[in-house]
Specification:
The protein is built from twelve helices and eight strands. With about 260 residues, the protein is α/β, with parallel strands linked by helices. It has one domain: TIM Barrel, CATH 3.20.20. Strand 7, helix 11 and strand 8 form a beta-alpha-beta unit. The radius of gyration is 17 Å and the shape is globular. The chain starts with a strand and ends with a helix. It binds 2-phosphoglycolic acid (PGA). The site of 2-phosphoglycolic acid (PGA) has 13 residues, from strand 8.
């Protein structure tokens, strides 16, 4: 059975003090309840160190929202993988639709990052998802296939052990509209079949596929109860402990 994984993507939000307070609330709750769920927080870069300190020995992982693939050097404005490791990161979110939409990231550039991050022994939360127009024109599977093939090119089965996929339909991100549990399950099942073809079915069964896109306490249970939904990548609702913690609790209850 795959252990659920709930990650909070804070995006470009929080201050240092509000981020530390939020991390402490999550760390305290996880320390107290010990849910059978993996949990990660992905704050903005400048807060990685204080948030990591606030998480302490709680078992909550620290993740970054992006990384650059090259070794440290002359790349103004970028962040190298050894820097993230030094800050205590275990995970990096790559291929998020906001990176694709607003920062021109392509399957090819994302692939460089995925390969370099896995080679550095950091976990990758690799995001894929279709636009509304693509769903409406029945292109969802074609789009997912292209993003998976491009983003994961050259990834070995051994490296894929550190890989998590996040299915995030772009039309559901930050909109308050979620995919229905059936839509999510169909996409997740498709992605797992794709992984089985690309690697093998044994490995595909172990790779966690998170759902992302307006996950809230009141829809988490339904989404997470789908057989191929193994957790959530949570944006807006990860910014408030009173919304994020019930999502973790829902995942923990279902994993029993
Ligand atoms: P959302 O964001 O939960 O605010 O829709 C999810 C994400 O973009 O990872």
């Amino acid at each position: 059975m795959r252990r659920p994984f709930v990650a909070g993507n804070w995006k470009m939000n929080t201050t240092r003090s509000s981020g530390v307070a939020l991390a402490k609330s999550v760390a305290d709750a996880v320390r107290t309840t010990r849910p059978a769920v993996d949990v990660a927080l992905c704050p903005p870069f400048p807060y990685l160190i204080p948030v990591g300190e606030a998480l302490g020995d709680s078992g909550v992982w620290l993740g970054a929202q992006n990384a650059y693939h090259a070794a440290p050097g002359a790349f103004t404005g970028e962040i190298a993988l050894p820097m993230l490791q030094e800050c205590g990161c275990q995970w990096v979110i790559l291929g998020h639709s906001e990176r694709r939409q607003f920062f021109g990231e392509t399957d090819a550039t994302i692939n460089q990052k995925v390969q370099a991050t896995l080679a550095a022994n950091l976990g990758v939360i690799f995001c894929v998802g279709e636009l509304l127009a693509e769903r409406q024109s029945n292109q969802t599977e074609k789009v997912l296939e292209t993003q998976m093939a491009g983003g994961l090119a050259g990834v070995s089965p051994a490296a894929a052990a550190h890989l998590v996929i996040a299915y995030e339909p772009v039309w559901a991100i930050g909109t308050g509209v979620t995919a229905s549990p059936e839509q999510a399950e169909a996409a997740h099942a498709f992605l797992r079949r794709w992984l089985a073809g690309r690697f093998d079915s044994g490995l595909a069964e172990t790779i966690r596929i998170q759902y992302g896109g307006s996950v809230k306490p009141d829809n988490a249970r339904e989404l997470l109860s789908q057989p191929n939904v193994d957790g959530a990548l949570v944006g807006g609702a990860s910014l408030k402990a009173e919304q994020f913690l019930p999502i973790i609790a829902a995942a923990a209850e279902l994993s029993r």
